[in-house]
Amino acid sequence: MEKVAVTGGSGLLGRAVLQELRTHGWRTSNFDAIEDSGLADTFTRGNILDQEAVDRWLPGHDALIHLAAIPAPGIASDDWLTMVNVVGTARVLRAAARQGIRRIVLASSVSALGLAWGRRFMPRYFPIDEAHPLWPEEAYGVSKAVNEIYGMAHARRHDCRVTMLRFPTIVDAANKAAFLSSLERDPEMAARLLWSYVEVGDAARAFRLALSAGGSGGHAYYIVAADHLAGERIETLLVDYYPGVVRTQRFVPTASLISSAAAGIDLGWTAEVAWGSAHTT
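Predicted structure:
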């Protein structure tokens, strides 16, 4: 039975990932500064900036999922966010290289694209896919884009597979109502998110499938719910917020403005939870 190292397994996404892996027969080890939920087989309290602690923890694992990060801007200074998110990731990858771990999955974000926290950017086309350039302009989005560069470089240098999963806001049943209410109160932020989301169980399943993918190299995928939360007003909202953006032949008004088709082809992942049909903004 293979054992997966998980950094940041005590958060919302981390707990779901540990549960998903446990359900499917993987052994897991959680490395986190926050108390463990009990879902992992073993727990080590630590900080990803502590290279010696990461190096002590990682031996004996077959694969790595890296979730530990400051999850949004405004929680810490830009300097500290960059230190934790970028330098911390580099140190985890360095430890993985020393252990010869050949399957790594990194949690990235649609913020690497430029969504959410910067000024509202104007996409080149809808639906957005992995061919669209990344245009982050604030520290969190930049940290995720830089981590993807690190991941790609790590895969090339060590001839292994590094998969980077780009998530929008991750929502579970407990925070669904609050999330929907926040979008209603702040239509501008809803537009900056492209009315996107993903349910936490769907997000966790993407990590399991990414661990099972074959081959080598660096690969980035959008992991987004198949629908959006703009409801029937989507056409009006697109004219108001994103006038003139080209719509490709794949454009479907009821579908997410961010395509996860590549994850479906390469990983076999499709979203199972769709909340947009029951909600309009």
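Summary: The longest strand covers residues 103-109.
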